[in-house]
Amino acid sequence: MFKLPEAWVWDFWTVDDGDRYHLFFLYASRALRDPHARHYRASVGHAVSSDLVSWERVADALVRSDAPAFDDLATWTGSVVRHPDGRWFMFYTGATLDPSGANLQSIGYATSTDLVTWDKAPGPVLAADPRWYEKLSDGLWHDEAFRDPWVVADPDGDGWHMLITARANHGEAFDRGVVGHAWSPDLETWELLPPLSEPVHGFGQLEVFQTADVDGRHVLLFNCLAEDTSAARRATGTTGGIWVTEVASPLGPINIGKAQQLTDDSLYVGKFVTDRETGETKFLAFLNASDDGFVGEISDPMLASWDGPTLVLSPVRERVAVP
């Protein structure tokens, strides 16, 4: 488990450099007292591990920029990939406030040669486009949702794709959550494209995507709390939490309506990680809701596997040394 006595830890993403696992995480001081205030104080921390269990905190990766800037309020969730030239690219969400105090989100990136020291590129490189995506001026949501970039290589070798937490520019307010989409030939220049999913499934937002291969089957993971779902979904008793849907490839086709709820809201922002020693798919998430309120820690790994059509989580089996 990863936790900090002085700070809440929540959204995170991982990367394996072949020797160590790297954990990049959002954190904010518990001195704020109100957990909801953490979002406007978030920085990106960094820890490393050899086993996904014991973590060593190292130097922070990113902090907000001086105003005026697209990330002068906070640096939020992202992902890390490696360019063929060896550079690491961290894509992240920049948050700022408009003159009315509303939150505007857009996407930038930073680069590193060692996963430790990061240099921000001028940004943002992507923002919501009203041709396909909802803007704050539509007045249906509390912020301009355009965040949580998840970047993957094209399955056929044609550049890179980014999946984005976004909202469609049409539909009912609590149906508008979609899989935003952009493409790049080189990780530096980006073209925004129409969403990969339809806004008809009762999710107001689909947060923090991940695509993964679990025992040979492709899945798309996203997160949504109950208060961000439609009245029809809430009427079924959903608690919100972590969701997965099986897909043919990282680019779909994506049917959000077929998503299964993997966990309730005690866990949030899950991530699948391949254990390079065993080949097993491990699963981590941050500890979210408890009887005492918000927790703000990252779980120990669990084992992800299939039970027929259902993806299930179970405790990691202890490995016994053979004499």
TrEMBL record:
It comes from Intrasporangium oryzae NRRL B-24470. This is beta-fructofuranosidase. Belongs to the glycosyl hydrolase 32 family. Signal peptide: none annotated. The lineage of its organism: Bacteria, Bacillati, Actinomycetota, Actinomycetes, Micrococcales. One of its GO terms (molecular function) is beta-fructofuranosidase activity. The keyword RNA-binding does not apply. Its EC number is 3.2.1.26. SUPFAM superfamilies: Arabinanase/levansucrase/invertase (SSF75005).
